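Quick one:
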Amino acid sequence: MKRLRITVEGKTYEVTVELPNETASAAPVASAGVSAPASSPVSASSAISPAGPGVITSPLGGNLVGISVKVGQEVKAGDQLATLEAMKMNTYINATSDGKVAEILVEVGTAVQEGQGLIRIE
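Output:
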């Protein structure tokens, strides 16, 4: 069983998922339960502990298909920084705080892992 937190249209839900390859005693092959929305939304980048100070990390594995900022650019919390494609869906990576883009850690077209650093803001 895994407990996940997902955000849909600004509402955050805690979901419990049973994976089919987990060993369980006569349990159904797969099931999911959804609890009431969590009290505060969780942004994609804050759901994972950062790789370092100011580093925005990838919330899931996928291909980086776009970077919307340049080194030296001022950004505000919520500004779109990058676009990640996974399972034919785009996930927008947003700034979690105001600051200046100090470093872009990956190139467009790169396959990234969950938790991998993408952009550093100072």
